[in-house]
Amino acid sequence: MTSCSTKCYFQASIMCTDSSNVNEPTVTWDSGTTPTITYKYNTASTSQYINLTTQTLVGDYKINFKYSFLFSYDIQSSCKTTPTSISITPIEPLSYNFLDDSYTTIVSITGLDSTFGPVKEFDLTCPLFIKCTLKYEQLRYRLRFYGAPTSYASLWSFKVCLGSTQRDFTIASPINAINFTYSDISYYVPDKAMGKFIYPQYSFNVESNQNIPPYLILKNNAESLPLSKPYPIKSINGISTYMGSFIYPENYVNTTFTLNAQTLDIELKPTSSLVYIKSSVTSLKSANNPLSIFTVSSTETDVYGPIPLYYGLNYGNKKVINSPFSTINGDNNQLQQAFSFLIFKSSASLFQEKISYNTVQLNINNAKETSASPTIIEALSAKSLANDNQLIITIQFTCPNGLLFISTQRIINEMTVLDEVFYYHQDFNIISGDYKSGTVELLYNYKYTDNSTNETNLKDKMKFNIILYDLSLNSIRLTKGEYFSISPNKYLSFPTGFDLNSNFATSDIKSVSFLFNNIDLTNNSGYNIMYIKLSGQVQSLKLTIKPQFEVFEIFGTWNQTSLAYQFIFYLPGNIMPGVLSYSLSLPTSNYIFNTQLPSAYQLNIISNNTDLSGPIFKSITKIPYSEGTKEIGWKVTIEDLTNGYKDGFVIITSSVDNKIYNISITPPIILYSFDYYIKVILPTDIITQDYFISQVVFYDNQGVNSTYESNSFNDFYQYTNPFINYVTDNKINVISVTGRKATVSPTSKLVEITVSPNELIFGKDNFVSIKLSLDNPNFLISKPVVYLTSSNIEIIECKTEQETSANKTHSFFVCNKVIASGFGYPLGFGLSVHNIYSSDGNINGYASDILKENNLQYHIPYGITYQEVPSISRKSAFSSEGGALYLYGKSLTKCTAFQVEGFSPVLNIPVYNSQVSISLEGTFSSPFNITCVYNGGSTFTTVNPIITKYYTDPIISSESSEELPTNEPQKCLNNCGGQLNGYCSSKGCVCYSPYIGEDCSSQVIVVTPDINGTTPVVTFPNITDPGNINPNNTDITKSLINIVELREIDIFGKIVKAYPLNVWIAKQSSKYVYQYQASIESDGFITSITTQVEWFDRDTNLTFANQKVKIVKSSVKYTIDITFYKFISQLNSLQLVMKASLNSTQSNNVCSTKQFGQTVDDNSDYIKLSIQNISLYGRFVKRAIVDGTPRSCSNILLDNSMNLIQKQSNSSQTYIGIQIPYFRNNVKIDPDFSVLIDSDNKNNKGNKDSVCKYSDSGEPIENSDNSNGGEEKGLSKTKIAGIVIGSVAFVVAALFAGGYSIYRKKKIAKQMAPINVKLTKVNNSSSNMDNNNYLKPCIH
C-alpha cells in the first residue's frame, strides 16, 4: 500500500454591497492550504462577489469572512476519511460504449460510514489505463475505464485511496483473447502529389462480430506509441476488418504490434517523413486609416494543389479556406500569399492579440481604448422554447464603445474552457436600441448549459459564462448564478426545470421501448421510434446515438396523450451488429448510457454484413496523353459490393497553370461495381506539367463516404480513402504531360472596382454587386474571385462571371451576393481579389492593403441608415409526416402572416424575433415554400421534407416471373425423317440424336473450328461432304460467325447510338475456351462486353433462363457478359448485331438459300444458311436473364438495313439483331448455331428463297417456281450434318429490386398507351429494321 492524500476540497461564496468604495474582505481559517480567493466588483450595482476555494485536512474547521465594519460571517467545514475495510463488487460485467470510448459497470460498495452519506468520487489510479473513475452517479456507484488498455490482461486492476492508504481491486476484462489474422501494415509514402498529410495505416482481421473493439497497442521497445483508434470498416461472414493510423510514423522502427493477447513483430521504414506547410511571415503591417488593416504575408514553395489556409483570432474559432484565397503573386514554385482583415482603431494603451495562420501564431499590436464607461449589463433573462430544445437569452446592455460580439462559455476554471460559442451581429437580434445601448436576443443550444449540480468534485465543477465584447475588445463577463445587481437582486438563471434536472437518474426512467426491435439491417434501413416514460415530465430530453462513425443528436417530443417522449431516428443498413450504443441526457445533466440500463431497454441490431467504409477504386489504369484525342485520363473500376455506389465527384488539378476539372460521377441507379473513364481534354497549346487527382468524394447508398484530399491536414482516418488499394503507389493519381516549357508571361492587372451600393444598411439583407475591370485580357485564363472579410475574419466568397462587354484592352467581370442581415456589422468588410491566373500559371491577386495602395476600393462600410426588415436565415429539419417547423432569422416579429403553399395563411403567430414555430399537418412528399409576409414586402425559404420511410422486415421474395414465350405448334414434315430419325408430337417433329432440323433430316458434322486469337470470330474451314453422302460433291464450304456492333435503340426503332466492336483483348483460358473483352463509353461510364467462346467435343445438356437447351457435339458456344450501360432513356433497348455467313468454292450448278423460323422443342428462333447440302444453323433462345431474372426476348433479321451483299448462289450471309431490353445491371441471352448436310442429292429449286446458278445459263436464278416441269434447280431436302455454334450469353452484373420492376412495368404501360398505334405503324415501316421480322424487345 502507498500513501494517499487525506485532504478535502472546500468552496465558499458570498456577495455583499459597498456603496462607498471597493474593499477586499478579511478571511481567516483554522487550517488547510491557503485558500484561493477571487473578487468580482460590479460598479453599476456597487456589489462584490467573493469566491473561495481551498483544501482542508481531516477534522472540523471554521472559515470567517469579515468585510470591513459591515458584517462578519462564519462557515463550518468538516473533513472525514473513508474506511479501509470496504469491499467493491461488480453488479454486472463491464460493457463498452462507443459514444465515450469507455468500459463501464455498476458496482456495490459495502463498509462505508452511513452517517457520512455517499462518497461523491474516489481517488483512483489504474495501471493499464490513462484514466479510470469511481463515482456516485444516478444513486449508484459507477466504475469506468477510458480508452484502451496499455497491455493485455484477463483481469483489470485499479487502486483506490482509502484514507492514507491505497488498496488494490480487480475486475474481469471484457476483452477475450480472440483469434485474429494479421492482414497488412500498409502505409502511404508522403508525397506532394498523393498528399502531404496522409498517415501510415494498419489493418487486421478478427474472427469476431462482437460489439467491443479489439485491444490494440503498438510498442517500440518498451515505449508505447500512439495509434488512432481502430474502427471496424467491414464484416463478412463473422470476419471483421479493423483499420486505423500510425500518428508519428517517423518513430516506428522494429516495433511490436500487439492485438489482444497475441503479438507480431513488424518493421516500418517510411521512405520519407511527413512534410507540413509552414508559413514564414514576411510582413505583418497595419495601414494608417480609421480602421486598422492587418495584413499577414507568407511565401510557399513547391506548391502542389490547393493550399488549405487555417486561420483564426484568439477570441474566435479556427477556420479553413482553400486557395485561391490569399494568393497574390508568383507561381507554384514560389507562391506569395497575403490576407487582410479589419480591426477598429482607437487611441490609448496597446493590447496584444493573436492570429493563427496555419502552424504559425502571430502577435498583433494595436491601439486599444480602455473605456472610462465600461459595458454594463442592466437586465438578463433566459426562456425555454417548447420542443425546440433551445433557450432565448435576452440581454439589456449599455456599451459606450459599441458592441462587437457576444460569447458563451462552459468552463471548469479560469484556464480551462471546455467550449465557447461566438455570436456576431448576424447571429443575434438587436430588438431595441442600437449597438451602443439596447437589448439583444440570441438563441442558445442546451448542450452547452451548466453541468455543475451533477458533478461531484470542485475540480470537475463547470460554470457557464456570458461575455460581451466592445469594439476595442474590452469585455464584461457574467457567470450563471452570480449576482450582477443586489438592489434589486439580479442574477443569470435558467428556466425552472433546467436548473433542477440534476436529480435525473436511471431510477427516473420507467420504461424504454422501440417501435421495432431485433431489427435486421442486412441490406436494409429505415426509421425507428424510441418511446421513453419517466417518473415525471421534464422540459427537454435528448437522445444521442452512434450507428456509424458520426454521432447523431435527436431531441424528443413530448406526447401528452401517452405521457412519453418520442424519438424518431434513422438507422442505415449494414452497420455493426449487436446492441446499439445510445445515451439519454437532459439539458443540465450527465449522460445516461444504454449500458447503464437494463437489457429490456436495449435495441438489438442484426446485420450479416457490415459496411462502414465508402466506395473505393478497385482498379486504376492511367491513360497517357494522346496527340490524336488530346485526352488524358484514368480508367477506373469503382466498387462498393455491400452498400453500392450512389454518387460522387473527382477533381483534377494541373500543377503549373492551376486549372481545375470537376467531374461528377452519378449513375442513374445504385451500382456495386462499374467502370468509368475519368478524362480531361487538354488545350491545343500544352505545357509541360502534371495533372493529378486532388480530391475524390464518393458516397454509398447508406450515406457512408470515402474522401481524399491531396493537402488536407491531420487526416488520421484514411480508412475512408478511395485510394486505399494504392497506398504504396504515390503516382497513381498523377499523369505527366510534355509540351512547351512554361514561361513568365504578363498577368492581367486589376484597374477598377465598382461596388453597388457603396455602403450597407443595418437591419436587413443587403444585395451587393461588385464589378471588376482588368487589363491584358489575352493573358487571363481564369475568372477572378472576390472575397469579403469581416473584422472577426468571417470570409464570404463571391465568384465572378465575365460580362459580354469585353474588348481588346480590357475584360469585365461581375459578382453578386446577398449579405445576411448584420453580417460584418459594425465595421463592414475588407475587399480582396484573387484567382487571376495567366496561361502559364503566373498568379496575381490583391489583398485589402494592396487595393488601398493602388487607390482601389478596399472596404464596404455600414452606413448610418437602420431599416428593420424580416429575414429567414435557416430552418429546422422537417418530416414528410408533418409536425413542427422552426424558422430562425431576424426581426420575425415584423411578419404579419406566414403563407405555406397549399395552406391558408397562418396569422397572428406569437414569435420571438429570432424564432417562430409553425405546426403543419398532412403529408409533404415534395419541396415547398414558406413565405413571411410583412408590411411592404415578403421573404421566403424553401423546405425540403425528409422522407420518413420506416423500417420494414426484409422479406425473402422474388418478383412473380412473367410468362416466358413458347413457340406455336408446327406441322410434321416428311414423316419426321422416318421412325429412326424422330417422331411427330403435338408441337411438331421431335428428333432423335444426332438428327436435327424441322423434319429431322440433318445431322452434325464433327469439324474442329478455327477460333481467332484476337477477336471473337469463329471459322469452320474446309467443310466437305463426310462419309460420301454426296460423292459427286468435292467442293469446299466455309462458314464464319462474328460479333459486329452494339446499338442503343429508341422505342420507335431508331438507332440513337452505335458502337462498332472492332478492338478486343483476348486470352486463351483452356484448350477449347477463349475469352475476349471489348469496352464502350457512354457519358464517361464504361460498359464492358466480355465474350467467351467454347467448343464442345461432346453432347451437353444445359439450362438457361429456366429453359433446357441441348448443345450437340462439335458446337461452339458464345457467352457474352455486358456490364452496366447508361441508357439515354429507360424506354430504350440495346441491340447486339451478329453476322453469320456460308461460302462455297463451287461456282456452277449450285444453289443457296436462307431460312428464318422457330424450333419445336426448346422455344427458340433459328436461322439456317444453306449451300447445296451444307447448312449453317443458328439457334437463338427467346429468353434472357435480365438483372438476374428470366425474361422474354426476341431476335430479328437485319439484312435489309445492313447493306447486305448481292445474293449469290455459292454464298449466303445474314445479320441477326439480338434485342436486349433495358436493364439496370446485367442481361444474359443464349443462341447457338449448327452446320447441316443433306442426306440425299435432290436440289430445292422449289424453295422460294433459293438462288441458283447452272452452267447452261451462266446467271443466277432466283425464286424459281419449277413451272417448266424440268429438273428441279433449287436446294433439295437432304440429310444435313451440322457444325453447331452454341450459346451466346449476355451478362450484366447485379439484381434490382422487384418492387422497382413492378413500378416500372406500370410506368411503361402508362407511357406507352398513347403511342401504341404509332408503334405499330413504325414497326411496319421502319427503315432501320426488316419489315417482317421486327419483334419488340423484352419488357420487364
From TrEMBL:
Limits of the DUF7035 domain: 611-738
Region (Disordered), start-end ranges: 1247-1272
Residues in DUF7034 domain copies: 749-861
Source organism superkingdom: Eukaryota
Family matches, as InterPro entries: ComC_SSD (IPR054484), DUF7034 (IPR055462), DUF7035 (IPR055463), DUF7949 (IPR057709)
Occurrences of domain ComC supersandwich (ranges): 1029-1236
UniProt keywords, alphabetically: Membrane, Transmembrane, Transmembrane helix
Membrane spanning stretches: 1280-1303
Pfam families registered for this protein in UniProt: ComC_SSD, DUF7034, DUF7035, DUF7949
Domain DUF7949: 972-1004
Xref: PANTHER family: EGF-LIKE DOMAIN-CONTAINING PROTEIN-RELATED (PTHR31378:SF29), EGF-LIKE DOMAIN-CONTAINING PROTEIN-RELATED-RELATED (PTHR31378)
Protein name: EGF-like domain-containing protein
Native organism taxonomy: Eukaryota, Amoebozoa, Evosea, Eumycetozoa, Dictyostelia
